[in-house]
Design a protein that fits this description.
Helices cover 34% and strands 21% of the residues. By secondary structure, the chain is an alpha+beta fold. Strands 11-13-12-16-17 form a five-stranded mixed sheet, sandwiched between helices. A four-stranded antiparallel sheet has the order 1-2-3-4. It has a four-stranded antiparallel sheet with strand order 5-6-7-10. Strand 16, helix 11 and strand 17 form a beta-alpha-beta unit. The longest helix has 45 residues.
Length: 449
């Protein structure tokens, strides 16, 4: 081996791992991730190939290959055989981004053509795998949308069943202290016994842990197609629990410990304080969304053609504000379902920390949690978050005051910035700190009584 080739190899070995990664055009990790993960250049997959710049290590869980140097990474990515002299030098050339010196072994034209063909075949296979996953995901999404649509369609139309209308009206009155107009029941429907599923049975199938009355609302897209539904389980006997049932589910830790399921999700026998403290059981939310929600909204009252829209996170909060202003005829009232859909994704660079938002550690200490910032993510797609129609000229966003204040304030500012345009006046209305609108207005009305 000539001196020039020897020096060439030594220079390649001296290249830092991070520099080699950049020259091989490995993508940067996603924001908040320590390493890049993606399809393997050889065996495909989804996220089995990982490259960590800081730890100077790469691996593929599919191939079982890995290492800590740029030359080995180049050989893996470019389908080179480092056991052959030509393959090794080609990998060095890729790491240095320089040609092999005279006297060094090179691939023959036939070998190079065969290698490039292998690379193209691997890329084609990876592309087909991605398409198959997307097709499968789209099919699953459409099935879920159809299932959610049928949940609402097959629910009781309260305008045709006064008993069901009275039940939902009583629930909304209990939560807001306002008697809702009949127009609300164009969208809100009822089920007298709707199954609540949590975990799996011994056969691995979804386990029904509760069945009871439920309020079902449609989630619609910007062109008013039903893309999902919002389900709220109700229990008007539970006045101290927001007129919703208290449900307990077996946690993963409880299942590992062999703890039993509780009858009817713990409504007839609650977990012991010891088991709750140990994390064997967890409180289950009494609200769920099915189908697709992102980019959609829940119509509550009024016509979408109105130039004034008022909305917020939850159904009850919006109805409380609507009642306080007299259920205005010139306003379309809606719910976003949750704050993520209302605010939209944040620009990662706008994230910040605050002393009030922390994660509690096992040792009793705390660590500040990053808060998604007030700046919207750039280049968002229309269905990344709720949209407001172009004809709307006045938009009121009702904030939820019983969530963490700083986190919520950042999200509401992001929503306002995302939806802002010159011909739209946007206001954010805040309830008293530590309360939501339904609780605040209920307390105010009760105080006046």
């Amino acid at each position: 081996m000539s001196d020039a080739v020897t020096e060439f190899v030594e220079q390649a070995r001296a290249v830092s791992f991070a520099e080699a990664v950049d020259r091989l055009k490995v993508p940067e990790p996603r924001k908040g991730k320590p390493e890049f993960e993606g399809p393997c250049p050889r065996c495909g997959g989804n996220d089995r190939f990982a490259v960590n710049r800081k730890k100077a290590v790469w691996l593929c869980r599919g191939c079982g290959a890995g290492g800590r140097d740029g030359i080995g990474l180049a050989a893996h990515m470019l389908h080179l055989d480092v056991k052959s002299r030509a393959g090794f030098l080609e990998a060095c050339s890729a790491v240095l981004d320089e040609p092999i010196p005279a006297g060094g072994e090179r691939e023959t034209e036939e070998e190079r053509a065969a290698r490039l063909e292998r690379i193209d075949a691997a890329k084609a296979k990876a592309a087909q795998n991605r398409k198959d996953r997307e097709d499968e995901g789209n099919l699953y999404r459409e099935r879920e949308i159809e299932k959610a649509r049928n949940f609402w369609i097959n629910a009781t139309d309260c305008r045709e069943n006064l008993r069901a209308m009275d039940y939902l009206r009583d629930y909304l009155f209990a939560r807001t202290r306002f008697t809702v107009p009949d127009g609300v029941f164009v969208n809100l429907r009822a089920r007298s016994a709707f199954g609540y599923y949590h975990g799996e049975d011994e056969r691995g199938k979804p386990l029904e842990v509760h069945s009871g009355p439920a309020m079902i609302a449609p989630i619609v897209s910007s062109d008013y197609r039903i893309i999902g539904c919002h389900i709220t389980w109700l229990d008007l006997r539970n006045g101290k629990g927001n007129s919703r049932p208290v449900l307990w589910g077996l946690s993963k830790e409880g299942a590992k410990a062999g703890k039993p399921l509780l009858p009817n999700a713990g409504r007839h026998r609650t977990p012991t304080p010891v088991d709750i403290e140990a994390g064997f059981y967890e409180r289950l939310p009494t609200k769920k969304m099915r189908g697709h929600k992102t980019g959609g909204f829940i119509p509550l009252l009024g016509e979408p053609e109105a130039t004034r829209w008022l909305g917020g996170e939850g159904i009850e909060n919006v109805i409380a504000v609507a009642g306080a202003e007299g259920f205005r005829d010139d306003t379309f009232y809606f719910s976003a379902g949750d704050i993520g859909n209302l605010a939209g994704p944040a620009d990662p660079d706008s994230a910040f920390t605050h002393e009030s938002v922390v994660t509690r550690l096992a040792n009793g200490g705390t660590r500040k949690r990053p808060i998604p910032g007030p700046v919207p993510k750039k280049d968002q797609a229309p269905d990344d978050a709720l949209q407001v129609a172009a004809h709307v000229r006045e938009l009121v966003l009702a904030a939820d005051g019983d969530s963490e204040r700083i986190w919520t304030a950042s999200a509401m500012a992001r929503a306002k910035a995302r939806l802002a345009r010159d011909d739209l006046d946007i206001e954010i209305w805040w309830p008293p700190e530590g309360m939501d609108w339904s609780g605040a207005l209920s307390a105010a009305i009760a105080g006046d009584a």
